[in-house]
Amino acid sequence: VLQPGLHVIAPPDRFGGFVSTQLELLDLPPQIHESADYVRLKIDADVLYCIVDPKRALLRVSDLKKLIRKTATSTLAGIIRSSNLSEVAGSRKVAYGEEKVGGGQEGESKHIGAEAEPSAPSFQQKVHDEFLKELHDYMLNDLGVEVSNIRINDLRIADTELANKISKEAVKVAEQEAEYRMLQKETDILTVRANNQALEVRIKANAKADQEMILVKAKNDAHIAQTRAQAQSIEIKAKAEAEALEIMAKSKKVSTIFDAQAQADATLLKAEADKKARMMQGEGDKTYASMIESTKVGAKLAALEIQQKSLRGISKVAYIPGMPGLLKNPELAINVEAKDMGLV
Q1: Which of 35, 110, 260, 311 has a beta carbon 3.0–4.6 Å from 39's, enabling a disulfide?
Q2: 117 in any annotated domain
Q3: Distance CA 11, CA 321 (A)
């Protein structure tokens, strides 16, 4: 098996033919198969494949197309026999292995288990998925052939009478589904309207609540500001009164200090003056005494002073010179007022 390109073949080798690795379409003969619920289904399909390993494909089988055709037909028969019409309504297409869409080396590969968009409606999609699941990996690993796709050209119920009944039932179901969808749409519309009305009411309620909250907050802020202003005013007034009282106390304290200082100074000055007066009086008395002592009159003055002190409080006194002789001669006695003598 030679790769594509220019080759020279010399005897005893001989040329057997070309094997294409491009994507090929193989027609399957129309077949009628029974489903699991004994419904006869007529199917017409094509298989798209490409040879990815020419050596394995040539050495493993002599007629590759015949083998693919028989294998595909039997696989379709098994899929239909294991299925019924009610099971395949919601199937999806699944790619198995590394499926190369478009064939050849430039095909786009898909990994096993990756979901793809449906390529055929309902039951045809079910047949498509099961066919690739059963046949793809076997053909690729054993024969070197990659089955890329199966195309369902025609799939119908072979029994005409049964097909008509099912068609009528399908029409009824379609009508019911259409009515259901219409009712569902109306329900959705009513729900949306109700939601819109509820949303509108909720928005209005929220707006009213927000407005009331704003008003309450504004009132609270104004009340708080007024209270703070009053508190600040009271605080300022109390502080001013405290400062005034403090100033008055300080002034009284200073005045008291000044008065006490002045009184102390006056007392001190008076004491000093009294001291000086006493000193001066003492000096005068001392001088006077010394003067009296130095003269003859002094003794008499001293005697008179003693007499004056002894006669204080007496309103009248009789002065009798020469007491012994006067006592003997009453006619010579003289009455003298004490005040005349300077004794009172």
Answers
A1: 35
A2: yes
A3: 214
The residue among 158, 193, 221 that closes a domain is: 158
Single residue among 112, 133, 158 that ends a domain in this structure: 158
215: exposed, middle or buried (Cβ count in 10 Å: 0-12, 13-18, 19+)? exposed
Backbone region of residue 154 per phi and psi (left: phi > 0; alpha: psi in -120 to 50; beta: other values): beta
pTM here is: 0.41
pLDDT tens figures, 200-236: 898 989 998 988 889 898 988 988 988 888 888 898 9
Using CA atoms, how far apart are residues 316 and 318, in angstroms rounded to an integer? 7
For residue 304, give the DSSP letter.
H
Considering its fold, how many domains does the chain have in total?
2
- Give me the CATH number covering residue 82: 3.30.479.30
Long-range contacts of 97-101 (CB under 8 A, 24+ apart): 97/136, 97/137, 97/140, 97/146, 99/132, 99/136, 99/146, 99/148, 100/50, 100/146, 100/148, 101/148, 101/149
- Asked if residue 12 has a cis previous peptide bond (ω within 30° of 0), the answer is yes
- Residue pLDDT, tens place only, 118-149: 444 567 777 788 888 888 888 888 889 999 88
Q: Are strands 94-95 and 114-115 parallel, antiparallel or unpaired?
A: antiparallel
DSSP letter (8 states) at residue 3: P
Residue 34 resides in a domain: yes
| CB-based contact 148:23 (threshold 8 Å) | yes
Residue 327's pLDDT band, with cuts at 50, 70 and 90, is low
| Chain-centroid distance, C-alpha 219 | 28
Structural domain harbouring 308? 299-344
* Cα distance from N-terminal residue to C-terminal residue, the chain: 182
**What type of residue is 226?**
Q
